[in-house]
Amino acid sequence: MPAEGGCMLAESQQNTARRYRHSRHMLEMGLVSVVVFSLMGSASVIVAILNVDGSFRRPLLAACIFGGFWGCLCLVGVWMILVYLRHELHIDSGNVRHRGGLFSGSVCVSRLTAATWKSFTREGSLTLHESSGSVKVAFGNYTYEERRELIRFFREALVACDQQGWEQFEKRCLPPQVEYRVLQKKIRGHLRFAATAFALATPLMYGILIWQKLNGGLQNHSPGVIVALPLLIATMLLGCMWFAAREDLSRAKTRDD
What we know:
This protein is of the alpha+beta class. It contains six helices and eight strands; from the N terminus they run βααββββββαβααα.
């Protein structure tokens, strides 16, 4: 029997066991962050210590500052990887267990006093309240398919509970119906267009830089910098576009893709 003020799982959900992991994009973000920030930190420290052109009055202090700054950003990437590896949401016939990066929690459905749907973020979340604590399910951690599955499950399973904030959540936070293959084709088209635009613009950028160099406008820059700058800008912009597209694709991916 449920505790007073509690609720029971709907009969259709009583024998359901489900396990959810964090979206793979968190792992990708962590790995990219560790690699990029490690390289940037190493290069900054080496440049500061060598101090070839005498730009740093205190090379060792500058190296420590650069190393600390990039090291902190690198630790953020390590944290993302750990969160991905640890995160798990497990739902069985009577309990909801959540394990996060630092904290874990569980609630017994038969002792729930309320369920609060929150729409402060675009993805939304659900907080399950029990007399001894609560568990928060952040839907942004999962793919669109998993979000729809979780939302449908909790709406049906907690039909007897006091569910607050559902109307606002339904208006703002229900995941879109996205076809993975269609989105993938669309994003590839955008990336091809961007790559073509950069390929056409790069000769113009080189022409402007060479013209300024010949007219004495870039006296403090070596030819190597002039050669590398347009390619570096194009690579960084394309990389950012690709990384943003990867997030959308990871959200839209289904178990069959």
